[in-house]
Amino acid sequence: MTQTKFDSKTISILEDKIQLIKTEKGAIYLVGPIQLPVNLYDKTVVFHWYCWLNCDEVTENFENIIHKLSSINLAEFQQSSVLAYGNFAYSEDAIIRMHSICHTGDIFGSKRCDCGYQLKQSMKKVVEHGNGAIFYLANHEGRGIGLFSKAMAYILQENGYDTVEANQALGFVDDSRNYNDAIHVLKALRSKPVTLITNNPKKLEALKKSGLPVSGREPLWGDVSEYNEKYLETKINRSGHMKEGDECCND
Ligand SMILES: [Zn+2]
User: Fold this and answer.
1) Which pTM value belongs to this model?
2) How many helices (H) and strands (E) does the chain have?
3) Contact (CB, 8 A) for 231 and 113
């Protein structure tokens, strides 16, 4: 394949916006910030959007990286995002949300779960707080089992299985999500303490174990309907989520 020759202007514009984050396995390349005006409950709010990608090649030669990335078909894979708001790097008390991608809930507004609601509410909380970030985690579909498997799990649920039973019947552990990459990116963007928007104690533990100064947790409840009542109950009873009132919820 012939190598595209990027002109020096293209390279100099892009290399200022790409950050190398070294990890145990290789590197994460973080691109951004990019101004992203978003329609949030009928108001236009400007977020700072970043996107990241894992790569085994560790180099500060961004021309090589840009070339490598433009030659692989990235549309075949999902990439993760960060939507930051306000002075995220230096504010004293930022709030963050680690949001697992949910194709059905976030995009279609499915009422079988409460993901779409939680995503929008988290964005609203961050804006109201004045600064913070939403980490949108692309390899977390169906708690890490992927979209096709999630569809099969839904079929089992339509036939009497609960969320945990359905995943186990398909040979998956209940929750196979990993937050290591997101934590690397968070550390690159900010070193001061964060408050985590979650009802899930496991997320709080993952962040604490990474050595991040977590100053607290903020619960996020709501949007209970006849379609997700059973799912939310299972999260509380089977997956260790905290209950509304005795603290928290279901992500
Ligand atoms: Zn969902």
Assistant:
1) 0.85
2) 9, 8
3) yes
Please report the pLDDT score of residue 18 as a whole number. Answer: 93
By annotation, the residues acting in catalysis are 175, 177
Check pLDDT > 90 for residue 97: yes
**Ligand 1 mean position to 34 CA, how many Å?**
27
CA 150–ligand 1 middle distance (angstroms): 10
Q: How many CB atoms lie within 10 A of CB 251?
A: 24
Find the 117 Cα to ligand 1 centroid distance in Å: 9
Spacing, Cα 106 to ligand 1 middle (Å) = 7
* C-alpha R_g of the chain: 19
Interval between CA 152 and ligand 1 midpoint (Å): 14
Instruction: Give, as one character, the DSSP assignment of residue 223.
Output: -
Alpha carbon 135 to its chain centroid, in Å, reads 4
181 bridge partner residues = none
Return d(Cα 10, Cα 128) in angstroms, integer: 37
pLDDT band at 244 (very low <50, low <70, confident <90, very high): very low
Percentage with pLDDT > 90 across the chain: 51
Q: Give the Cα separation of 79 and 7 in Å (integer).
A: 26
Distance between CA atoms of 21 and 194, rounded to whole angstroms?
Answer: 20
Confidence of residue 28 (pLDDT cuts 50, 70, 90): very high
